[in-house]
Design a protein that fits this description.
This protein is mainly alpha-helical. It has a domain of 29 residues. It has 2 helices and 2 strands. It has a two-stranded antiparallel ribbon with strand order 1-2. β1 and β2 form a beta hairpin. It is globular, with a radius of gyration of 12 Å. The two termini are 24 Å apart.
């Protein structure tokens, strides 16, 4: 599945689960980008709140 907010690269998820993940990503896109840069530079990752 390819989408604006992420890819399922292996296996499958139910459509409802994909919607939840996409919603979470859309809420935390900036935080995810910061964590990506932290991971690439070997810095600790920041906590990102779960979808409530």
């Amino acid at each position: 599945m390819t989408d604006e907010y992420g890819d399922v690269i292996e296996g499958e998820l139910p459509k409802r689960a994909i919607k939840f993940v996409q919603e979470w990503i859309s809420f935390h896109k900036d935080e995810l980008e910061v964590n990506w840069e932290n991971a690439r530079s070997g810095e600790p990752l920041n906590h990102i709140a779960p979808l409530e």
